Amino acid sequence: MIDCLIRQPAAASAWNARPAGVLALLLLLALLTGCASTPRLADTTEDRLPRQLLLDEVPFHAQRYYQCGPASLAMVLNDAGVDVEVDTLIPQVFLPGREGSVQPEMLATVRRHGRIPFVIDGHLDGLLLELDEGHPVVVMQNLSLPAWPMWHYAVAIGFDLDRNELILHSGEEPRRVESFRRFDATWARSDRWAFVALPPGELPAGVRPHRAMEAISDFESLQGAETALPAWESLAKRFTDNGLVHFGLGNARYTTGDASGALTAFERAVSAEPGLAVAWLNLGLARRGQGDAAGAREALEEAAALHGHWQPHARQALETLEEG
Amino acid sequence: MMKKICRYLSPLMIAALVLGSFSVSAAPAPAGNDLITTQAALNAEHGQADRERIHEILARDDVREQLITQGVDLAEVEARVAALSDAEAAQMAEQLEQLPAGASVVGALFAVFVILLVTDILGLTNIFPFTR
What we know:
The structure holds 2 protein chains of 2 kinds.
Chain A: H1 2-33, H2 43-48, E1 52-54, H3 68-79, H4 86-93, E2 101-102, H5 103-112, E3 116-119, H6 124-132, E4 137-142, E5 151-160, E6 165-170, E7 173-179, H7 180-188, E8 194-198, H8 209-223, H9 225-238, H10 243-255, H11 259-272, H12 277-289, H13 293-305, H14 311-323
Antiparallel strand pairs in A: 1-5, 3-8, 4-5, 4-8, 5-6, 6-7
Helix pairs in contact in A: 3-4, 8-9, 9-10, 10-11, 10-12, 11-12, 12-13, 12-14, 13-14
Chain B: H1 2-25, H2 38-45, H3 50-69, H4 74-83, H5 86-95, E1 101-102, H6 110-121
Helix pairs in contact in B: 1-3, 3-4, 3-5
């Protein structure tokens, strides 16, 4: 009797364990994956975008083995006017030991081929706006779960807002259709990492000045000021009141031998941001290089009066000027 | 023998590297008509210390070795290292093993596949083409 009483609830709980277990598993999965829902676009984005868009001129290269990195690069580089084959890119970006390609080298390889890699802000709005600008976007996804990752590069080439779908050249499948929801869930696991590869002079649709300057400056270090100059010119046109942008333009002009153009840019820089010591400093040094001692002193004095990293440099330059 | 050479050589190498990197990183006040480079201005904006910069510059040697270990063609190593920005080189040197490598394969067991099948059907992952 007592046995029964004890056993009965035990048996009942054994029966109830299955749905509870399934529920627990689902909860665990939800925890593991984070709750995925269809990402909502901002109203301003919706207004700007067409309902459907497909960049159908972007060529497709099927990946072989684990080489989605080189294949994705070939697609965007070809689209940006670089005539390069997947087979050329494999030894340049693929890591045999990791059987894959890592993000820094994806960007570096774009640079090697004379295009500027701009990492774009990680949200669906930004991605779709790039597509609208005609730029195919390389995205990094983790197609699997964080615990057992399956990292993958693909190229976004279009979308359908009515059906909430993104179109990608991915793996062995051209124009693969993924729902925004599923795409965003897999993209979120790479912290929504994405970039565009653009010829110098073209800029991403949405880019913050500082990030763009870093991208162009890194490109300039490898490819030289001559090649990077058009990028600085466009950036200065886009961000007319950013002092540091004009400063970068001034440097690129100066290095390519356009001293008077450089002076104009440095002057724009200090009039946009009178507190930008480094621009006063370079304005002074460039004027000195042009034999304008009075103008040089004026600018260097401004630089030397500003506290911060460049003050000692400005003071020293001022001393050399007095001596010379 | 090798050890002896190394003992004499390594301080020299260290000195050479440190001196070599100083000229780039610490960017002494321009003596001639050298302007402050954009890179130097951006680094200063970041408030990046010169010590960090030296670290980033030395990182390239590590990356070179790592690329060789990972089986990269020797003829390609130099060009690959050169194409990296300083920050990227530092990132590669410090955490190449942890960096995700896009490859589109799952290195996991069968049991995991069952779970992934479920998440695929739920639309959280995208591994099996037939679930779409």
